[in-house]
Amino acid sequence: MIRRTMASKLRQMARGFPVIFLTGPRQSGKTTLVQSVFPNHRYVSLENLDSRQRIQEDPRGFLEGLEKGVILDEVQRVPELFSYLQTAADASETNGKFILTGSQNFLLMEKITQSLAGRAGVLHLLPFALEELFPKTPPGEPFERFLFKGLYPPLYDRKVSPEDWYGSYLATYLERDVRQMKQVGDLGAFQKFMRLCAGRCGHLLNLSSLGNECGVSHSTAKSWLSVLQASFIVFLLEPYYRNFNKRVVKQPKLYFYDPGLACALLGVSHESQLKTHYMRGALFETLIVSELIKRAVHRGKRPQGYFWRDHRGNEVDYVEETPRGLVPMEIKAGATVTEDSFQGLQYFHEIVHPAPEASYLIYGGREIQQRRYGKAIPWREMKQMQIG
Questions:
Q1: Which of 183, 195, 376, 388 has the most crowded CB, counting CB atoms within 10 A?
Q2: Phi and psi for 367 in degrees, rounded to 5?
Q3: Angle value at C-alpha 292, between 290 and 294, nearest 5 degrees
Q4: Does residue 44 lie in a domain region?
Q5: Residues 83, 116: one domain?
């Protein structure tokens, strides 16, 4: 089994909260993780109809009958359980007794806020980070393989093609999760909206354009985007504009948490297509930005990442806010480092003056190089970056 970075944080939080809530996208490995960290807890899947009906009929009796800890998987299936969990958590003398998992963040976080505020430690598990996979993968694998295959655990546990797996995943997501939401009435239009989002990966978000191409209103596009965010399909990277003048872009950029899912929505059927694909650079940027996000999230931290761009088009792909100051990072899929690769960093240095040793170019090559405006870091060597 591939070791998850979050395991140690999960154990730590279980010592301080009676309830631990682990959320994340479907198939991100939540069940496997909690069962490995809490092997002595009873496991109950609320996807199972019999278990769900039994608990719905007598939630208080179920909770009072638990002598040891319990893992309640896909707990959003029984929303009425949360009010009883509040009483059980207050009565419990043992922290980490109730471990909850779920994949519908929009439903669950509302219940946690209403019923379990102060009683529940909340963590988010995303698909594998590259740092988790590298010890188990050959060092010579090209980044296009990770772009196409993606980083969902089942693709590394089973002998299944990415094309087959993502097709099934999308069908399940649409039929089981999206269909339940009042915000989405037309699943066909919503799937088209997802494909359009994939085509805008790594670009500034323009909801009006998205809505127009999909044939829906701006408000509908905004509502559908919130569904994709809440179900951990996409995220928005906000612009950094503190201490800058009004000439800085205020729109966020759109990214997918998993590049493999974006490739599936774009119709990519083999990794070789990515050598010349028009989205190659944007998908590589998605891989790296999502990796930086995961490194924080999987350690129980809030990501402090942004991008920076002014109205003239000068841009830095990722800016990390740290106690030492801003750490700018450029992301390039090319395997060769050129002076042009540092153009964004150079401009940023002229107006912000960060230290060169705290500026990075993350690229598709293999050699670490120190340059005037920062250090070039191969995509497989991101652990060499000194951030924070």
A1: 376
A2: -110, 140
A3: 70
A4: yes
A5: yes
CA–CA dist 336, 312 (Å, integer): 26
**CATH code where residue 57 lies:** 3.40.50.300
- Among the three residues 124, 149, 174, which one is the final residue of a domain in this structure? 124
**Together in a domain, 113 and 150:** no
Q: Between the CA atoms of 280, 281, 282 and 283, what dihedral angle is there, to the nearest 10 degrees?
A: 50
- pLDDT over 70 (residue 294): yes
| Model confidence pLDDT, tens digit, residues 242-259 | 766 667 788 999 999 999
Interacting residues of 388 by C-beta distance below 8 A, sequence separation 6+: 320, 322, 323, 324
DSSP conformational letter for 354: -
The bridge status of strand 253-256 relative to strand 98-102 is: unpaired
For range 48-61, the mean pLDDT: 90
pTM over 0.90: yes
What rounded mean pLDDT belongs to the chain?
A: 91
Instruction: Report how many helices (DSSP H) and strands (DSSP E) the chain contains, helices first.
Output: 16, 14
Residues 112 and 190 in one domain: no
Contact 358, 345 (CB under 8 A): no
Together in a domain, 173 and 263? yes
Inside any domain, residue 295 = no
What confidence tens digit (pLDDT) does each residue in 324-375 have? 889 999 999 999 999 899 999 999 988 887 777 789 999 999 999 999 999 9
Q: How far apart, in whole angstroms, are the C-alpha atoms of residue 101 and residue 86?
A: 16
What does residue 262 show for φ and ψ, rounded to 5 degrees? -60, -40
Measured CA to CA, the distance from residue 89 to residue 101 in angstroms comes to: 16
Structure tokens at 314: 């000068």
Q: Count CA atoms within 13 Å of residue 71 on its CB side.
A: 21
Residue 24 is part of which domain span? 7-124
Task: Show the 3-state SS of 112-150.
Answer: HHHHCCCCEEEEECCCCCHHHHHHHCCCCCCHHHHHHHC
Tell me how far apart the alpha carbons of residues 281 and 267 are, in angstroms, rounded to a whole number. Answer: 16
Query: What per-residue confidence (pLDDT) applies to 31?
Result: 95
Domain-located, residue 242: no
- Distance between CA 99 and CA 93 in Å, rounded? 15
Q: How many whole angstroms separate alpha carbon 15 and alpha carbon 268?
A: 45
Residues 85 and 104 reside in one and the same domain: yes
Residue 173 half-sphere exposure toward CB, CA atoms < 13 A:
22
Amino acid symbol at 68: K
